[in-house]
């Protein structure tokens, strides 16, 4: 999943990622992370094992 920083994302993300240090790390480094980490930090509510499971 990619997020563009030009459509209000930088204003909305701190509400989802309450750890401000992690928020800054993701914004400034643009590092990749997997679905498990995305769910752990609050960007995803659920992860499915397969496309068919959706």
Automatic annotation (TrEMBL):
Q: Which domain of life is it from?
A: Eukaryota
- Gene3D superfamilies per UniProt: 2-enoyl-CoA Hydratase, Chain A, domain 1 (3.90.226.10)
Q: Which GO terms describe its molecular function?
A: delta(3,5)-delta(2,4)-dienoyl-CoA isomerase activity
User: One GO cellular component from the entry?
Assistant: mitochondrion
Q: What InterPro entries does the annotation carry?
A: ClpP/crotonase-like_dom_sf, Ech1-like
Q: Signal sequence span per UniProt? A: none
Sequence similarity = Belongs to the enoyl-CoA hydratase/isomerase family.
Q: Which PANTHER family match?
A: DELTA(3,5)-DELTA(2,4)-DIENOYL-COA ISOMERASE, MITOCHONDRIAL, ENOYL-COA HYDRATASE
Protein name stated in the entry = Uncharacterized protein
